[in-house]
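User: Structure with pyridoxal-5'-phosphate, tokens only please.
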Amino acid sequence: MRKYDFPIFEHHPDLIYLDNAATTQKPKSVIDCLTQFYQNDYATIHRGVYQLSQAATQKVDDSRLATQRFVNAQHVEEIIFTRGTTEAINLVARSFAATQLKPGQTILVTELDHHANWVPWQQIAKEKGLGFEFIPINDRGEIDLEAAQKMIKERNVGLLALSHVSNALGTINPIEILIPMAKAVGAKVLIDGAQAASHVQIDVQALDCDFYCFSGHKCYGPTGIGVLYGKKALLKAMPPYQFGGDMVETVTQGYTTFAQLPEKFEAGTPPIAEIIALKPALEYLQGIGFLEIHRHEEALLIQATQALQAIPDLQIIGTAAQKAAVISFIMEGIHPHDIGTILDAENIAIRAGHHCAQPVMQHFQIPATARASFGVYNTSADVDRLVAAIEKVRTIFK
Ligand SMILES: Cc1ncc(COP(=O)(O)O)c(C=O)c1O
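Assistant:
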């Protein structure tokens, strides 16, 4: 459908790229923006009195405004630029959880979560004497809402941190039910939107979550840039996460005062080009529109699910009623890595492994899955090629 927007498919006309949950390819507008900035407009931000620096600062400000609009945040200073989702979660763990949660309170995640939304909480919980537990999933890969209700009521939950969309199974979590459930007991809520930002319209005000984070590279933008949205009052009350230049007001031998939001959380020279090129990525998504993205990816998901279900000895892991275009599967007697290697010989890029979600693999008692994940440029013909290649894998191993 949109392969012509992505130069990589000119260089690899035969490539079927189905590893979009790991990272997405970049449209020409994003590549051009990076090239243009480095070639013609490059300078640092904030410090310069000269025109180039002022223009770069303006572009960074524009990108923050575009991001504010993208997630529908109330205030532009609620948008903090980070290196990615992982850094955004670590920031909240080290700043919010470390200082605002009290011993005896619990951090709740779900069995579906990526290691990025698991390990930072587990570590801070150990260090600060907080509880750390997960809400279980059922065998379709859906959060058990009864268990969630019970745990949220019975535990002293200080923070619920969960993914919007699961990277391992594609499950779209009912965050519009879980957020009010957690808020009813006074807990704060962080949503890991790493897998959602390229598929689902985000509205942080409608969701009423306290924190929402995502990575640029998974939504057609550059690597090294991510976003943390946080409610202004919370961010204001939180101490800085990293210290150094650009995040201070006054520095003396005896004391330092910190800058206002968002600079307070953006120590050091930021990834200027990547911040600037996040804007065309978000505009690319908005240009297509989330209704159209959903319609397109849902059709691919249905086509692929039906075709793969018909292959003997193949089992889809993760059959939630609400799914993004991600299909994890295993084949009897064939290791997922072998599936990936054979598909690679057919020029089809999929992922094989535990997808940084070992607790999910433990639930299904499997070491790994093969995973095909779809994006805006994939086509029905890509699905046909995937299915034919998997048939071939089966005949090789028979
Ligand atoms: C659900 C989820 N959360 C967090 C992350 C971490 O994102 P990043 O590596 O861009 O920080 C990923 C990446 O795969 C993910 O899928």
